[in-house]
Write a structure and sequence with these properties.
Shape: globular
Structural class: alpha+beta
Distance between the termini: 32 Å
Order of helices and strands: EEEHEHEHHHEEHEEHHHEEEE
CATH architecture: Sandwich
Helix content: 10-25%
Bound molecules: 2-oxoglutaric acid
CATH topology: Jelly Rolls
Largest sheet: 7 strands, antiparallel
């Protein structure tokens, strides 16, 4: 019986507390089937959505940057991204253009494979936001449970997050976790789901304890092991967060947003230097 941690909570894997995400690869090419699955589960796990060779090249750019900052343990293989025990750092690299805006990273996040996936899913020309939530999540960290709408809700709500790991992410390296069923919690959508972190001056997390939301609303947390190339797609009202990064390696990943090009956009995240959240002075707080 394996246990993992998410925030301050210890959860048993493969139990009612924490199940496994299922992939939707069998539905690729079937637009109606993908939408039915999204309506049912609130997410699509697509194995090998991206070209793994491109993801590896993007990972190397992130690793070179972290190494240049002295954040990696050079006594271990650099491509495994072991954190230097004495150097704190990491977090959001979204405002580091030589990394987040590099050809290697953009060739994954704006590559033909993901763009044509969303064009098929959404049935039209797709826009992806220039701001990329690129993360090097250090050992010990996790992301608390939240809906993305509270950070990204000023444009169309027909907006999708694509979470892309830039390294293999085993269960102990802080993988994404989704609260399956949460996109249907009408009472939660109408309350917390109407908040806006800038208007309400909140950090956006529903709770630091992933079981708070289950106790009140139901659902089941689910997670998976991810390999380079895999992606998770979900809408603005799917509650998610991550397990704690319990090992010694950085977890590298990016969340990127896609929508139809003819729909209104959330203006905070567009332009050459996106404004971002209020008061962040171009340095994100690291929560969204
Ligand atoms: O990668 C994480 O820790 C959080 C990801 C996330 O919040 C998102 O994909 O919207």
């Amino acid at each position: 019986m394996k246990t993992v941690t998410m925030g301050n909570e210890t959860l048993t894997l493969d139990s009612p507390q924490l199940g496994r995400l299922r992939d939707a690869n069998g539905l690729l090419g079937d637009r109606a089937g993908l939408h039915e699955r999204l309506a049912e589960d609130g997410y699509l796990l697509i194995r090998g959505l991206h070209d793994p060779a491109r993801v590896r090249a993007a990972r190397d750019v992130v690793i070179r940057y972290l190494d240049g900052k002295g954040q990696l343990d050079r006594s271990r293989p650099l491509d495994e991204a072991w954190a230097h025990p004495a150097v704190k750092g990491g977090g959001l690299l979204s405002r580091v253009p030589e990394v987040a805006g590099s050809d290697e990273v953009l060739s994954v996040l704006e590559g033909e494979r993901v763009m044509s996936f969303f064009a098929d899913l959404l049935g039209g020309e797709v826009f992806t936001f220039p701001y990329k939530w690129l993360r090097a999540v250090p050992p010990g960290s996790n992301t608390g449970a939240h809906y993305d709408v509270v950070y990204m809700g000023r444009g169309t709500l027909e907006l999708f997050t694509c979470w892309t790991p830039f390294c293999d992410v085993g269960i102990d390296r802080g993988p994404l976790a989704v609260l399956v069923g949460s996109h249907r919690f009408a009472g939660l959508r109408d309350t917390y789901g109407r908040s806006d972190v800038d208007r309400d001056k909140s950090d956006g997390w529903y709770s630091r304890d992933p079981l708070d939301v289950v106790a009140k609303w139901g659902g089941q947390w689910q997670t998976a092991e991810f390999a380079m190339g895999d992606a998770m797609v979900f809408g603005m009202f799917t509650m998610h967060g991550s397990l704690n990064n319990a090992g010694g390696q950085y977890r590298l990943s990016c969340d990127t947003r896609y929508q139809l090009a003819n729909q209104p956009v959330d203006e905070r995240w567009v332009g050459a230097v996106p404004r971002g959240h209020d008061g962040e002075s171009r340095t994100p707080k690291g929560r969204a």
